[in-house]
């Protein structure tokens, strides 16, 4: 049998989904909810806490509880990699028309705010093992954030790594002001004669740090999806590795596996 706070949460959730309580609307005061549902203040707060954990309600200190604005969902499928590869050799104007984020969200280029920072670092033991290089090898570390201009938080937190000497033959690949790069990383690598043949993605989940929660705007209790992506060229060499941290409240990941016929 459902507990009292669960029944209150169920009713408020139904009202939100039905549009009776619209995004951005302030919920009745907690004292009013106590009177409406005939339950104690701790019980009402439990119900609100449950809705906060689900990302439906947010508490604004000093103002009350509000129906949370629905954030643009992200539908990420492994088929995106072939989509990116198919575009890598297209004319620049065609590559400029859309990118991976637009592909995953259905938004347009002009809907997005993009941020990129490049820095040069020495490979630590983890990166050295991934790339098969020596510790201390110079790397290009690229940090990316992309958000919908109508929202305050990015879709993901991305850090990508390239071997500096590998990409330095095209100086444009060392300059963050060239971002967002039409065609993304696969086109960047194409400019230096590299074709991707295989990508490996490892997915895990964990609680976010306080900093990650703040940057991604995560409701309490929301899991962080962590994706490690390694890109291999046609010779089996690792040419790029990235860590992508995705908010669990707006990201849906689909993995499509085609099976050979008997």
N-C termini distance: 49 Å
Please indicate the percent range of residues in DSSP E strands (runs of 2 or more).
25-35%
Computed structural class: alpha+beta
User: What is the general shape?
Assistant: elongated
Please tally the β strands and state the result: 10
**CATH class category of the largest domain:** Alpha Beta
CATH homologous superfamily classification of the largest domain: Chorismate lyase-like
Tally of discrete structural domains? 2
Over all CA atoms, what is the radius of gyration?
22 Å
Instruction: Find the CATH topology of the largest domain.
Output: Chorismate lyase
Average residue-wise pLDDT: 94
Fraction of helical residues: 25-40%
Architecture blueprint of SSEs:
Elements: H1 4-17, H2 30-37, H3 41-53, E1 57-60, E2 64-67, E3 74-77, H4 80-87, H5 92-96, H6 100-105, E4 112-122, H7 125-131, E5 138-148, E6 157-163, H8 164-167, H9 184-190, E7 196-206, H10 210-216, E8 224-233, E9 238-247, E10 251-254
Parallel strand pairs: 3-10
Antiparallel strand pairs: 1-2, 4-5, 5-6, 6-9, 7-8, 8-9
Helix pairs in contact: 1-3, 2-3
Describe the structure.
30% of the residues lie in helices and 29% in strands. The protein has 262 residues and is an alpha+beta fold. The protein folds into two domains: 4-67, Winged helix-like DNA-binding domain superfamily/Winged helix DNA-binding domain (Arc Repressor Mutant, subunit A), CATH 1.10.10.10; 74-254, Chorismate lyase. Strands 4-5-6-9-8-7 form a six-stranded antiparallel sheet. It has a two-stranded antiparallel sheet with strand order 1-2. A two-stranded parallel sheet has the order 3-10. β8 and β9 (238-247) form a beta hairpin. α1 crosses α3 (41-53) and α2 packs across α3 (41-53). The longest helix has 14 residues, at 4-17.
